[in-house]
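Quick start: read one record
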Amino acid sequence: MIHEVDEVLKDLIGGGALAGSGIEVSFDAPTRDWAARRNTPTISTYLYDIREDVHRRQRGHVAVRDERDVVVKRRQPPRWFRLSYLVTAWTKRPQDEHRLLSAVLATLIPRELLAPVELPGSLGELGLSVPISVAGIQTESRSLAEIWSALGGELKPSLDLVVTAPFPAYPEYDAGPPVTEGAAVRVHGLDGTSPGPEERAHRPRQVAAAREAREVARRRRTSGTGT
């Protein structure tokens, strides 16, 4: 699931306002050694935090339907995870880095949701929209200063990009075939013989008709008692 989100972000950031610019989109950690090896303008999209969004956790089961809209399998609901990315621009001049960050903002701000048709692999198969937010209030336990300190570099202007993506739940199990006929009751004696009709079929329409007849009779009795 994570690599599929990476694929979506690479296409999203590399397109939009940066389309045709040749700017590289990297997912490497922006350490001091990595920065020293950069010789072309680069957008670093570093995944620094992964944690479950427990507010989205669901119970029960999800039905899996075939092309005839018949339930063929059941599975647990997907679990949702917040993937937090540190987005930075790397060029030789701070002004150019600021322009690149502005271009990334212009591309990502309008995209609050990623539709299922835009998602590859297992993400797209779930048929769920994926929320995306950029430059919002940081809610993770680690501050950006701590992240830069762990990376061994100096603090740079950055965008906090959060993608909340579903992780498919496994395993799936087969569902029983749909009910197309009514229930049948077989009555036998203690010795195995059939004392009456061998089989009494109870079909939905017959059961409903019998229930309605009993209700009509009850109302008649009640009305007669009142008079």
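Confidence is low (pLDDT under 50) at residues 198-202.
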